[in-house]
Amino acid sequence: MTTADRQYTESAYSLYRNLLFPSLQLLKSNTKNLIIISNGILNQLNFEVLLTSKQEVSNKVDYTKLPYLMRDYQVSYAYSTNFLFRTDQLKNLKKSGIYAGFAPTINYQNIDSTDTFTQIKYETLNNLPLPGAAKEVKQTSNILNGDRWIGAAATESLFKAKASQYSILHLATHGLINNDSPLLSELLFSSDSLNDGLLNVAEIYGLSLNAELAVLSACNTGVGKSAKGEGSMSISRAFSYAGCPSVMMSLWEIPDKTTGQLMLNLYQSLKKKAHKAASLRSAKLDYISSVDNPDKAHPYYWASVVLMGDHGKINIKNNS
To answer: Tens of pLDDT along 92-118?
Structure first.
């Protein structure tokens, strides 16, 4: 067992024993859903990767077989109980489409931004193009017979015009986080004559979204400056308050290829179950069981994406 393996397994078990175990003993034996409301630094912790039993330090870790909490429970998160209660009123809003996917073309050279933060982020961002984003949107839209906009067509202007018409919004792009000024954190779209392609948090708060689920397939969309009693001031939080009762967000950066496989698993499961938390859990378990290298089953590769908000069923019908 390497030092990194030991640090993870020991910490994951210790956190489980101290944070969850006492409360889990009070639950009924048939409880399967956990809704976690945390604060401060715990907002950045994915509780699904905590380990429910202690691991022998002398053995090599097989990440495909570890006793993750996710094996026993469907885990979702919420900003507060009040926020969970307000999501019920959003579920029955009528939409004209089921799925809208966006995979923009992002070209730093074509973006004219005077914002210093944006300039620095673009210049230091590695692998600005996302080669797997278009494939991800094509595959997931095909599963639900949805609509998609790829490349230059996936503009910020089009997103603002179309987003309120769909039950599921899927954004495969880059997310840029500004912890000093959270309202300036942004998602990247293709630009046009009307908008620069930089959809920031302040703009998202001003949208009226009717989607039952927003899938933010971009790095760090669940990350942001922590506000006491409010949780992380993240991009995903803006989508929640713009009208999306459920948001799948990311807690760290993960490889483009891994994200694509996880999302493919997610939508295949959604089509069968139409249950958000159960589908995300199945997607992760399917990924773990199918990797050709046990090291690729490390939580880094699959545990970044979590579900914030309503964890129940979503109305999925044929878009045609």
So the answer is: 556 678 999 999 976 554 444 445 445
What kind and span of H or E run contains 200? strand 198-200
Global pTM value = 0.90
Number of residues assigned to the chain: 320
Single-letter code of the amino acid located at 39: N
Q: Sign of the CA dihedral 2, 298, 103, 314?
A: negative
Residue 151, strand partner residues = 104
Query: How far is residue 154's CA from residue 104's CA, in Å, rounded to a whole number?
Result: 5
Q: Which strands form 198-200's sheet, in the order they lie side by side? A: 175-176, 186-188, 198-200
Measured N-to-C along each axis, helices 256-273 and 131-143 cross at an angle, to the nearest 10 degrees, of 10
| pLDDT tens per residue, range 31-88 | 999 999 988 888 889 999 999 999 986 778 999 999 999 999 999 999 877 777 665 5
